[in-house]
Amino acid sequence: MSFIWFFLILLCLLMYVVLDGYDLGVGVATLFERDRRHRREMLEQVAQAWDGNETWIILLVVSLWAGFPLAFGTMLPHTYLPLIVLLFSFIVRGISVEMASQAPPAVGWERAFGIASLTAALAQGVAVGTLTMNLTVVGGAFSGSAFGAISWYSVLTAAAVTCGYMALGYAYLKWKATGELRARAGRRGVVLAGLAAVLTVACLVAVNGTAAPLNLHSPGRAIGFAGLLLFAVVGVMMTLVTLRRASRYDGLPLAGLTIAAVAVIIALVVARYPVLAPPDLTIANTAAPQNTLIFLIVGIGLNVPLILFYNWFAHHTFRGKLDSGSGGRDLPNPGLRSHL
Amino acid sequence: MSLLDLSRWQFAITVIFHMTFPAITVGLSIFLCVVYGLYWRTGKPVYLQMFRFWRRIFAVGFAIGVVAGIVITFEMGLNWGPYAAQTGPIVAPIIGMEVVTAFSVEAGFIGVLLYGDGRVRKGTLFAATVMVSIGTILSSTWIIAANSWMQTPSGFALHDGQFQPTNWVDAIFNPSFLWRWPHMVLGVLISAGFFIAGIGAYYLVKGRALQFARRSVSIALGVAAILLPAQVFMGDQVAGHVFPAQLSKAEAAEGNWTTPNTGWVLFAIPDQQAERNIAELSIPCVGSAFYGDLSCKTANPPLDLTPTADRPDMAAVFWGFRAMFFAALWMFGTLFYATILRFRRKLWTSRRFHKYLLWTTPAGIVAVLGGWVLAETGRQPWVVFGLLRTSAAVSHLASGEILFSVLGFSLLYLVMLVAYIVYIVRSLRIGPERDHPDYVDRPADSDTTQVPSRSPDRIVPALASEEGLS
Predict the structure, then answer these.
(1) Can you tell me the ipTM of this complex?
(2) Backbone phi, then psi, for B265, in 5-degree steps?
């Protein structure tokens, strides 16, 4: 039972990384965009979708809490500082994107949006890194120290996650934008996708020196891990090759990066299952009782296809390329167009 | 100040801040449905103007509500780890249902609601607006179910200190949920009514966009006038059902320490240590009358019936209750007067009333927040009433960590609140004229030159000349 629920949590994680990954990445990219018109286009892209994309991290957090309450109640205090910074970033990001979109011109809010996107990506990277440090649990409750969870490894994961998100963001812009913005997204995307790939390899190598080494002792795990990494390599190659091309298939770089990100995360799960956090928090010893899991699988599990539909609906409504000529969306607000 | 106090303050600040926004946006989302539905059916431009203007106020409030809500979910694990571990099997699935049936619905359709105007068909935009408001109502349903379980837990068994579900129907439809849910929904609808009426009154005072302003104020005050009597009844029912289950909350809310009081305490400054009120003003016999006894014999129970270790902080509970109660009286009087004016056909001519109405904008929000302060501080010192103490539910964090987060949240929320108010005032000054479909863009922005330059701060003549409600 807890096994099924674990896979739903994994699905949330994958959806979150891909969807909010591109949207945080576009946010970070606004910091490096000099042209105001382009910056607005990028911001408007995020304004339409961030709410739906962030649904997945909420579902991830609540699913972890409901399915594995003991893990949730100790892992979150363990990663307190990076998660607080993440929440600060979400707050600033949420308000600044709406302010900049609803009441332009708002140069200050645009800047705040970019910076908050960057700190959100970094904080997520640091948080991932803290899960390679041993949790101090006494009597079922967390009792570690504030900075005990943060190590040099967190710096590495923060860099990898941020570069990965930025690569996703540029791949997304390559898909949605036209003209100069599209071309620049292609050029910068290549650099960041390459950087993200190198940093991810560094993370995978270095993780064996932490408290959460990869467990590849059985042939099944080793083969699965290697196979998935192969997928990731193919995905990255696909992205690197197609990003610079002026082709009709502008969606391919994003598809390639999605394959790579999904493959790397599943590979990590293959190599760590069934441990949630070191030293000994596993799926089995933190799972909620049967009654809860049945409720979750029926009540929440059956709703997940609907959420996927809502995500599809939201992206489908605003499908197609942005029209750079009129400055993005056909805005109902006449005041806005004058500033573009 | 202890680590427990810091975590409690952080929760209080973040949850009160969060609640301010649903108190505006739940009702506003339904208002948007109504006006867009009217526009779709009648094609009258004023409804589209109303939709566009109020949507702008809604958009930012909704976004702040969402991000502030995300914070609450994380805090359950961050600051209240033992609570999360022990109540997770029951509370978390209920919150999970909120995420999948409400949060995700809102998130999925908000993009279309905010940016779909002119890009999607009217039917699609209306459907998206309806979905968002269904989401906001469902959201409050699940959240009240989870919170009510903490007030009146049922349908569970304790195993190794963990609350495990034995009967989901009992756990979700727990004794206080059935009363608190309608009370909460009515509360947020009325608070949105006052919010809309107050802002609409600004244009009545200024004599701008009159048709827009009159329709907004008329709908908002009309709905509030119908709902408030129902709310007074529901509030009484909630007290009748929750107070017997939580005597300590009832005792603290009434403001008496030792002697049973047949009077009703209007004002008090309680001293928790000395177990007395430093100052007190009590109206004789009214306390008894609230229990349905007009003969002045039924007394309110005092707080010393509860052992010292199990007492909530009287000042917070008492004043939470009074804030809600006084705000309700204030709103009742306002609506009563507004209804009289409406029947005497003076609602649009009484300038003094319009000016007064401006000041009632936050009345409903005050009542909703006061009610939550009563519910939450009145449950103390328990987090699950009678079963799990708040002091046993707090995470063992370093003081520096919590200080960092408390100060950070306080600062950020202060900035956001100021930004939202500035934004509303700015939107208010610019006004709804630009949202009218016949509004002509400034010539600098378009190539239509037959219309002379028109500042958005001035009245659009076509609108100002329309009188009354047609």
Answers:
(1) 0.87
(2) -75, 115
Q: CB distance A140–B56 less than 8 Å?
A: no
| Those residues with Cβ within 8 angstroms of residue B58's Cβ, 6 or more apart along the chain or in another chain | B24, B25, B28, B29, B32
List the structure tokens of B126: 């209306």
In what helix (H) or strand (E) does residue B157 lie, and over which residues does it extend?
Answer: strand B156-159
Query: Could you give the CA distance from residue A26 to residue A30 in angstroms, rounded to a whole number?
Result: 6
Tokens of A236: 């990255």
Q: Does B159 touch chain A (CB under 8 A)?
A: yes
What is the distance between the alpha carbons of residues B237 and B183, in angstroms, rounded to a whole number? 9
What DSSP letter does each residue of B103-139 carry, written as one string? IHHHHHHHHHHHH-TTTS-HHHHHHHHHHHHHHHHHH
Cα gap B363→A9, rounded to integer Å: 42
- C-alpha–C-alpha distance, residues B360 and B344, integer Å: 22
Predicted confidence band at B401 (pLDDT cuts at 50, 70, 90)? confident
Domain boundaries, chain A: 2-320
List, for residues B161-214, the tens digit of each pLDDT value. 899 999 999 999 998 999 999 999 999 999 999 999 999 999 999 988 889 999
Q: Do B90 and A292 touch (CB under 8 A)?
A: yes
How are the residues of chain B apportioned to helix, strand and coil, as percentages rounded to the nearest 5? Answer: 70, 5, 25
The ranges assigned to domains in chain B are 3-256+301-464, 257-300
CA of A216 to nearest chain B CA: how many angstroms apart? 31
The kind and range of the H/E element at A276 are: strand A275-277
Q: What's the whole-model pTM score? A: 0.87
Q: Which of A167, A183, A188 has its CA nearest to residue A21? A: A167
**Which helix (H) or strand (E) element contains residue B384?**
strand B382-384
Counting beta carbons within 10 angstroms of the beta carbon of residue B248, is it exposed (0 to 12), middle (13 to 18) or buried (19 or more)? buried
Residue B117: the pLDDT is: 83
Q: pLDDT by residue (tens digit) across B206-248?
A: 988 889 999 999 999 999 999 999 999 998 888 888 888 888 9
As given in the structure block, the two tokens for residue A268 are 């990590």
Q: Taking 50 as the threshold, does the pLDDT of residue B446 lie above it?
A: no
Question: Is the separation of the CB atoms in A72 and B85 below 8 Å?
Answer: yes
Contact between B99 and A58 using a beta-carbon 8 Å cutoff: yes
Minimal CA–CA distance to B238: which of B311, B182, B191? B182
Interface probe with A: pick from B74, B129, B401, most Cβ of A within 10 Å: B74
Neighbours of B16 (CB within 10 A): 15
Whether B92 and chain A come into contact, CB under 8 Å, resolves to: yes
Q: Is A305 exposed, middle or buried (0-12, 13-18, 19+ CB in 10 A)?
A: exposed
Helix, strand, coil % in chain A, rounded to nearest 5:
75, 5, 20
Q: Token digits for A252?
A: 């391919």
Question: Is residue B203 classed exposed, middle or buried when 0-12, 13-18 and 19+ CB atoms within 10 A define those classes?
Answer: buried
Q: Which residues 6+ apart lie within 8 Å of B273 measured at CB?
A: none
- Yes or no: domain A2-320 corresponds to CATH 3.40.50.2300: no
- What span, in angstroms and rounded, lies between the C-alpha atoms of A81 and A54? 20
Cis before A289 (ω within 30) = no
> What is the rounded CA–CA span in Å between residue B236 and residue B24?
23
CB-based contact B88:A288 (threshold 8 Å): yes
**B55 pLDDT above the threshold of 80:** yes
For chain B positions 367-386, those within 8 Å of chain A (CB to CB) are none
